């Protein structure tokens, strides 16, 4: 699932006429950076929630060849991360699901998504998060989110003045993880805190450079970082496979 329904307030004026998902970085829309990463990792269907300039985003997604896109429509009410995942439950099926923010771009020296999938173990985890080192990341100005144990278990920074790792906007979880959440908008953060307290929140670290593209300055810095990278080829559907490209559900 790609969380693309936010208002993009910090990205203004770039989001005055478009959703944050369609802000260009390195010649591609933010959402295409995410969807291409997921498609390269073997994802065949992606649920995208929409709210701000929803029609424009849907039209853009219609032009993609792969993966197949399902739309979770939040135009009536913006539901935040947890509420958005809960609303999309009927679209997600029963298998583990990647959940991705659209403001995360990275240069991968390894295979971060595969590492995340290999670590995932639903018998002992509620969620498994992809992390980046706080120092050296572009566009991240916080004091860090997590401490990472040798076995991959995460603890929140809490009262510590800083923590070495930041959540970089991609995790894997059970599709029913938010079923017990309230109706309407709510964040995933309280669920993660409860899982961490129970020893069921895990993570692994990106081997690469992370760019949190949350405002125009961070967008410009990400552009500069990507300037020396070779262009990624467009992601195409497998030969002979032509699923419906876009389904919209309220």
Q: Between the first and last Cα atoms, what is the distance in angstroms? A: 15 Å
- Helical percentage: 10-25%
Major sheet attributes: 8 strands, mixed
Class of secondary structure makeup: alpha/beta
Runs in which pLDDT lies below 50 for 5 or more consecutive residues are none
Q: How many H/I helical runs?
A: 7
Compute the gyration radius: what is it? 17 Å
Mean of residue pLDDT values: 91
Strand order of the largest sheet: 12-8-11-6-1-4-5-14
Overall strand count: 14
Overall description:
With 250 residues, this protein is α/β, with parallel strands linked by helices. The protein contains seven helices and 14 strands. The chain is globular.
How would you describe this structure in keywords?
250 residues, alpha/beta, eight-stranded mixed β-sheet, two-stranded antiparallel sheet, 7 helices, 14 strands, 26% strand
Question: What does this entry show, briefly?
Answer:
The chain is α/β, with parallel strands linked by helices and 250 residues long. It has helices at 30-40, 54-62, 80-87, 89-92, 112-119, 189-197, 216-226; strands spanning 2-3, 24-25, 28-29, 45-50, 68-73, 97-101, 104-108, 127-133, 146-148, 154-156, 165-173, 201-205, 208-212, 246-249. The protein has an 8-stranded mixed sheet, with helices on both faces.
What order do the helices and strands come in, and which of them pair?
Layout lengths: L1 E2 L20 E2 L2 E2 H11 L4 E6 L3 H9 L5 E6 L6 H8 L1 H4 L4 E5 L2 E5 L3 H8 L7 E7 L12 E3 L5 E3 L8 E9 L15 H9 L3 E5 L2 E5 L3 H11 L19 E4 L1
Parallel strand pairs: 1-4, 1-6, 4-5, 5-14, 8-12
Antiparallel strand pairs: 2-3, 6-11, 7-13, 8-11, 9-10
């Amino acid at each position: 699932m790609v969380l693309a329904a936010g208002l993009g307030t910090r990205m203004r004026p770039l989001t005055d006429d478009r959703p944050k998902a369609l802000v260009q970085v390195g010649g591609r829309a933010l959402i295409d950076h995410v969807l291409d990463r997921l498609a390269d990792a073997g994802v065949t269907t992606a649920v995208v929630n929409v709210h701000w300039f929803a029609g424009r985003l849907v039209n853009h997604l219609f032009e993609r060849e792969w993966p197949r896109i399902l739309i979770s429509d939040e135009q009536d009410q913006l539901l935040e991360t947890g509420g958005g995942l809960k609303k999309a439950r009927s679209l997600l099926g029963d298998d583990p699901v990647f959940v991705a923010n659209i403001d995360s771009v990275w240069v991968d020296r390894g295979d971060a998504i595969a590492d995340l999938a290999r670590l995932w173990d639903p018998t002992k985890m509620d969620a498994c998060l992809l992390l980046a080192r706080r120092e050296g990341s572009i566009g991240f100005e916080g004091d860090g989110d997590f401490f990472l144990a040798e076995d991959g278990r995460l603890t929140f920074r809490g009262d510590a003045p800083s923590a070495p790792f930041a959540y970089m906007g991609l995790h894997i979880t059970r599709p029913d993880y938010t079923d017990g959440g309230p109706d309407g908008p709510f964040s995933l953060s309280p669920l993660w805190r409860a899982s961490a307290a129970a020893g069921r929140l895990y993570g692994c670290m990106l081997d690469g450079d992370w760019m949190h593209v949350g405002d125009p300055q961070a967008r410009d810095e990400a552009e500069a970082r990507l300037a020396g990278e070779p262009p990624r080829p467009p992601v195409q559907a497998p030969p002979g496979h032509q699923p419906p490209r876009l389904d919209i559900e309220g």
